[in-house]
Amino acid sequence: MCGVAAAIGIGSAILGIASQYMQYQQAIADTEFYNAQRNLEWQSATLQAEANRATENVRGVMNDNYQNQVRSLADAAFQSESTGITVFQQQQQIKAAQEKKQATIESWKAKGSIKAGGRIGLTADALLNDVERQIGVFDFLSGQNLGFAFQKGQYDRKVAQAARGSRIASAREYVKTTYLDPVKPLEKSRPRFGPYALGMASSALGGFSSYSQIEQLRLDKGLNPGGWRLWG
Fold it and tell me: What is the pLDDT of residues 122-167, one digit of tens each?
């Protein structure tokens, strides 16, 4: 007959060993899946960091182009205003020169008329002095007006410079956001076979222990030992 105790002991040992081996294989699969998942997450984060840096570079280039455009427009506007101020000042100079020339001619005519009239004495001298005084007053007022025109031109030029600076400053520098590469995760070590081998050995011992206990019960009841034979 089949040794019942032997069959139970061997079956118990086989089941225990098989269970330990399956647990070991499952632990290996879990570790490999964990490492693969972490590596996939790292690769995804790396690609995202690279994409973010590329986006920041594009934004930086676009901002540089915008700043250059704003500066060019501000320079052109200032140049136009400055040229207008210079032209205005030159026109004032020409106008003052023409008016002074005309006044000088008129004074010469007045002096010639006085002298041609044959006037002598204090009256003639007074008339000539009056002409000189009028020329002096005209020169003073003309110089004052020309000075005011130049002061206004310089003030307008400063205002234009301030407007140029304000336009340029409105295009602010773009500060790039720094994106660092993620740290590559450490791989989880594969499970060691040692603990599972101990479990297998324990299962084998457990099967032998079950056999011994059954045999002892048979002996206690006066039955013949079953032995390890699986056939009669």
Answer: 555 565 566 667 776 667 777 777 788 888 888 888 888 888 888 8
Whole-prediction pTM: 0.52
Whole-number Å distance between alpha carbons of 138 and 171: 50
Alpha-helix residue ranges (DSSP H) falling in the chain? 4-116, 122-170, 193-220
- Alpha carbons 83 and 75: distance in angstroms, whole number: 12
**Backbone φ/ψ region at 118: left (φ over 0), alpha (ψ -120 to 50), beta:** left
Q: Which two tokens stand for residue 159?
A: 């205002």
Q: 24: which 2 tokens?
A: 């070991």
Give φ, ψ of 46 to 5 degrees: -65, -45
What is the spatial distance between Cα 206 and Cα 214, in angstroms, rounded to a whole number?
12
End-to-end CA distance of the chain: 3
Q: Write the DSSP assignment of 124-182 as a string of letters.
A: HHHHHHHHHHHHHHHHHHHHHHHHHHHHHHHHHHHHHHHHHHHHHHHSPPP-PPP-PPP
Distance (Å) of CA 88 to CA 101, 142, 160, 180: 20, 16, 15, 58
CB neighbour list of residue 118: distance below 8 Å, 6 or more residues apart: none
Q: Name the percent of the chain lying above pLDDT 70.
A: 62
Least confident of 46-60, 81-95, 117-131, 169-183: 117-131
